[in-house]
# Entry
Amino acid sequence: MTTASEAYAARRRASQPWNWSRATAKILIYAALLTWAFICLFPIYWTISTSFKTAVNVTQGDIIPFIGRFQGDWKGWRSLGLSPDTIFQVSTVRDEFLLRFGNSVMASVGASLLAVIIGAPAAYGLARFNYKFGPWRNKDISFFFLSQLLLPPVVLAMPFLVLYKELALLDNLIGLILVYTLMVLPIVIWITRDQFETIPIELEQAALVDGCTIWGAFIRIVLPLALPGLVAAFILSVVLCWNEYFFAALLTSTNAKTVPVMVASQTGSQGISWWTMAALSTGAIAPLIVIGVFLERYIVKGLTAGAVK
Amino acid sequence: MGHASLIPAGRKSAGRLLIVLTSLLLAATVIFQILDASGVLAFGLPDWRPSLYAYIVWAVSMGISQVMMRGEAGHKALFLLPALLFTIAMVIFPTVFGFYIAFSEWNLSSFDGQKFNGLDNLRTLYNDSYFWNALRNMTFYVASVLLQYALAFGLALLLNADIRARKFFRVAFLLPFMLSPVAVSWMIGKSLMEFRFGPLAGLARHLGWENPAFFATPWIARFNILALDAWVWLPFMIILILAGLQAMPKDIQEAAKVDGAAGWTSFWHITFPLMLPVSVTTIVLRIIFQLKLADIVINTTSGGPGGATDTVSSFIFREYRDRSNVGYGTMAAEVYLIIIIIFITILLNLVGRFMRREAAQ
# Structure
């Protein structure tokens, strides 16, 4: 550490008289930050704004609204049956979109709930008790769960396709929920175990002395304390499931199709209008943007669990 | 613990009886279904749901009997059992079943059904230039993680600097990660980069590229897929590295602030070495996710032009989508899984050795 503090002191001495260089650095930092923020936000802005464009706006590449030609138009939303003038009319496209949207909500919320319900107790058990299943100890069981992250979807996709056909679970939301639960379970266990390890064991011991069973102590004492971790795991799972495309594309067709599959099927067809695609994409990403803006700290908590000690 | 003797013998044997009965039920259902499916019995069950239900009954009674037979130890086992039985049913069975499919000729669109064909799929795969091409592309995609890491580190340092509106920048930097790769494929790949009307194409023309076709020639297409993929995944790396930076002791953090040349040396001698563990975790996790890269490629280029952007996953996806070739596709997937396991094992080994050497210094 001597070299560290020496270097630090040297830097302090060197930087004191050079205030103008600090100012330049500041400007450069903000310039870089703003550039990258622009790169991150512009595609989102572009998509949302394109959903309010007319054909001329698209071909002329208008970007800034309310000046010149680009006055805003419900064209994209009208084609989805979601503009103010079509919202009360019958629209098959809207029914289709809402069905997909509902499927996505049920699949991602259902799978995330199931993953938290079976994953959190497992994580707690692994954090607190000593298991022994044959030659398997806690470490091996944890590794078994985490190693599922390595499995690429393609390895499971085709066996699932055949299995689900035999089990009559193809194109079925329950089937999709089971696959998604499997997909996020290792992440849920990882995040919640990290959270349980921060809770002092004395609290549970006190509850046990007071006559709680271990399940009673877990549900009444530990779960409320671990709530931030559970919420983080749940939200991250919802985001991952909402965006999942590979399994949904292979395992669903008419009934259980989700939003990403609908977006993808529209992308492929030639001559599909930009404003429709933009409105559809906006619909697909809107819930995520809301989550990202308001629940950012849970996403960050979930992603960084266990990575930084 | 140690209270097992307090459990009445009757309860113990009832628990044992329960597990034996439900095991028999499960075995009987499966055997019955196998006989039915192979035509020995002629009940003609429409699907294998009964076996699934029998497994669920067996799994539930497994949990109940654990509590009955082992008391508190059983209660503890009950924490783990649901997740364990679920994962085993959902992973082990399909993986084993996958190996069975992989050694057969099975085209879902033909009426022939499954035909065992030994090592034929493996031989075809060995001679399939598209598969090798996809593997070569994967090495490129994986290598690019290092580049993304450098960029992410830079951006994390910026976020960690003494700035205003940090919350805004953090949310803005995070948002691309939240979006579905399928939507991103359209938003950027098919719209912003569109040849006629896309603003990126317009910008490229303005800068002197007369024919801005982003996905027409192999290397340009590959780099653009990479750009899309990086756009989605950089936030993940930024967040991890930023968390690492914020976990550093305060005085070192002060020294690590990016400002000027002195900042650069302090970064290189203090921050970077201290950040090595976090960096390694970030890179390894990112490589694991990169090996699954598929959605963006499938929806932007379908692996083209001429397979230049193909990943193993998108190759297998097309194998199924275009040819319904389940047997061959599964063989490719299983071989890929083995390659991944070997690669990650070697990688973790090297990383472990590297970290020990760093720690010793």
Summary: Chain B touches chain A through 108 residues (CB under 8 Å). Chain B has a mean pLDDT of 86. The first helix of chain B runs from residue 9 to 37.
